[in-house]
Design goal:
The chain is an alpha/beta fold. The chain folds into 4 domains: about 130 residues, no CATH class; about 130 residues, Rossmann fold (3-Layer(aba) Sandwich), CATH 3.40.50.720; about 220 residues, Rossmann fold (3-Layer(aba) Sandwich); about 70 residues, no CATH class. It is built from 22 helices and 22 strands.
């Protein structure tokens, strides 16, 4: 025997209530029609038609799914279900009456009075129940034990947060709203008044202080607000010495990562963030769903976010290839917790190991490979030239060639804006990796795609975590140059656009992401100081000078690269000139040989030969080094004397 639960008992009581209301409305509609002076034939009609009405409308209620909700949360959707059930039931009842008694003794006006009366009865019961359930919570807006906050925004998000604030256990109460829409001023949402505009914050605070409701902080209830609005709100709050927090993003709320009332600090991502990306999720799902995907550098900033994004689209298998044991452990554990249905395989390995890479691809047979493994710290690679070259070039070549041999469908390489007119080893190696991958396209069935973008906010080793640590320590915040600018995007945005670019490529393409406008690093530092709740006078900003390999401005394109539409508003297509692959392979071998011998001068010279746009400050490459290289290469058309011909081959 099925055990009764509290929910099923309550559902039964609700159904009983509705059926009783149906019978009452049916009888009362006749009495109203006859002004409570019914004819002698009415009792006979009601005796058989009332049970029929109860049965018919009971079926209609079930059809309209009126019992899937909770009474205490009854709202507009529940009212719509009631209307739909009553309308359908009325037509069914009319059909039954017509087929049985031809509606001869049936007053036509009853068919108008009855449904209106029934909707009132059903809706009123739910309204009364909700009122009594919530009656004690309306006093929460004046509960002085809760922290008073002032909310910016008077739209749907603000209404949702206000409604949620009426629940028990919430630690704040909203004492007022601010909105720049003057037509909302003086209106109330859940009893809370819209007091003025954002710029009138100081004046509103004075009014609230006099009323004994001085807010302790400001909450931004505009999840879709552009960064310019967020920046303005933060500045207004700073002038009033009020801390500022914000609601989670709509995406986080929708997918269930957080709830509406999970307020968080305003971050630099909010200040520098850009408009929400419109992804072609159907195309990404078609690319990923049911397929085997391998990600190199899976534990890094971009690699780990690619793992999270890909897991949303249901791959058959996700192979995590990572050199760092700790990073691999962390991302594998996170994916197991957040995406338990995704089959993940954690592979500890170096992309430079040909045997390890080949074994991994042979065992798991990935159909898509996303190559995010790379060394990226510019000053550090200037001090470790040969290691940077081997990791970024040998690692890319090893994985790319293994993909060709295994007939992997798609290979996507993550590149950087530092590959354009590079002034450092990191940028030069990424440019050479771009060239190498693009020219492998002709050697097999694998589609090679490169995606180039700028800095990502908050990535490991980037400026944002460094500034945050310096501010926490009381300063100073170190900026290399007052005019230094960089392109920025968030880690999720970069990862999403990498996947989107993968859906657009047919092989051999270099995609460039729209990075928006470059940001001054010193302005970024000032924003982060203010967001920390400190004043610029408290935290000193010092300028240390450009470090080895750095330049003031990054570029996304070479002058010779022409952009074309790639089919997405945030992604552009760049076609580069082909290079003779045999020549390129021989030069790469010589480069790696120089690195193996720890000959930095020879490595730099060879790197400059293959990437003519590379302008290093290491201009003291000795003639001895050049002579050694010349002796080591064949006395053929690819000798170093032909270096002047290379720019016509390499883009």
């Amino acid at each position: 025997m099925r055990r009764l639960t509290r929910a099923s008992v309550i559902r039964g009581l609700v159904m009983s209530h509705d059926l009783v209301m149906t019978a009452l409305a049916w009888v009362l509609s006749f009495l109203l029609r006859y002004d409570f002076s019914p004819p002698a034939t009415l009792p006979t009609l009601l005796a058989w038609s009332t049970p029929v009405a109860v049965v018919v409308f009971g079926v209609s209620y079930r059809w309209a799914q009126m019992y899937g909700g909770i009474w205490r949360y009854a709202s507009i959707p529940d009212m719509i279900r009631i209307v739909r059930a009553v309308v359908v039931g009325t037509f069914l009842m009319l059909a039954i009456l017509f087929l049985t008694v031809r509606v001869e003794d049936m007053p036509r006006s009853v068919l108008i009075i009855f449904p209106l009366l029934l909707m009132v009865f059903l809706g009123f019961g739910r309204l009364v129940n909700r009122f009594f359930k919530l009656r004690g919570k309306f006093s929460l807006t004046t509960d002085t034990s809760r922290r008073p906050i002032l909310m910016i925004g008077a739209g749907d998000a603000a209404e949702a947060l206000l409604r949620d604030s009426l629940r028990p256990g919430i630690t704040f109460r909203v004492v007022g709203l601010l909105d720049d829409n003057v037509q909302k001023h003086g209106l109330r949402i859940h009893g809370v008044e819209v007091l003025g505009t954002i710029d009138s914050l100081a004046e509103v605070m004075d009014r609230l202080d006099r009323a004994g409701a001085m807010p302790e902080e400001v909450v931004i209830a505009i999840p879709s607000a552009p960064s310019s609005i967020i920046r303005h709100i933060v500045q207004v709050c700073e002038r009033s010495n009020l801390p500022c927090r914000t609601m989670p993003s709509l995406e986080d709320i929708v997918v269930g990562r957080v709830s509406v009332n999970d307020l968080r600090e305003v971050t630099i991502d909010d200040i520098l963030g850009r408009a929400r990306i419109r992804l072609d999720e159907r195309a990404i799902r078609e690319l990923i769903h049911g397929r085997r995907v391998l990600i190199t550098g899976a534990g890094g900033s971009i690699g780990s976010e690619l793992c999270r994004q890909i897991s949303r689209f249901g791959p058959e298998q996700l192979i995590l290839y990572e050199q760092s044991e700790f990073n691999l452990y962390e991302i594998d554990r996170e994916l197991a917790r957040v995406f338990p249905d995704v089959e993940c395989h954690a592979v500890l390995g170096d992309t430079r190991s040909r045997s390890r890479v080949a074994w991994t691809i042979e065992k798991y047979k990935p159909q898509i490979v996303l190559h995010a493994a790379a060394y990226k710290h510019v000053p550090l690679l200037e001090l470790n030239i040969t290691e940077g070259i081997q990791n970024n070039i040998l690692g890319t070549r090893t994985v790319a060639k293994a993909c060709v041999e295994a007939h992997v469908d798609t290979f996507v390489m993550v590149s950087t804006d530092k590959a354009v007119n590079p002034t450092n080893v990191m940028g030069a190696t990424k440019r050479l990796a771009e060239i190498y991958c693009q020219n492998l396209q002709a050697l097999g069935s694998t589609n090679f795609i490169a995606v180039r973008f700028g800095n990502v906010l908050g990535s490991v080793g980037s400026v944002v975590p460094l500034f945050r640590e310096q501010i926490r320590s009381g300063g100073p915040v170190t900026v290399t140059h007052p005019d230094m600018k960089r392109y920025f995007m968030t880690i999720p945005e970069a990862s999403q656009l990498v996947l989107q670019a993968a859906t657009l490529g047919a092989g051999g393409e270099l995609f460039v992401l729209d990075m928006g406008q470059p940001v001054k690093i010193v302005d970024l530092a000032r924003d982060m100081i203010r967001l920390s709740g400190r004043e610029e006078s408290e935290i000193e900003i010092t300028f240390t000078g450009l470090r080895p390999g750095e330049k003031l401005y990054e570029e996304l394109l070479y002058d010779t690269e022409a952009l074309s539409d790639a089919g997405h508003e945030k992604i552009f297509l760049s076609k580069s000139h082909p290079v003779e692959m045999e020549w390129l392979d021989r030069r790469v071998e010589k480069l790696l040989s120089a690195c193996h011998e720890q000959n930095e001068e020879a490595a730099i010279l060879l790197l400059k030969e293959m990437v003519p746009s590379y302008r290093s400050d290491k201009n003291n490459v000795s003639q001895i080094a050049k002579s050694d290289i010349q002796k080591s290469v064949d006395s053929s058309s690819d000798a170093l004397d032909d270096v002047d011909d290379i720019p016509s081959k390499v883009g």
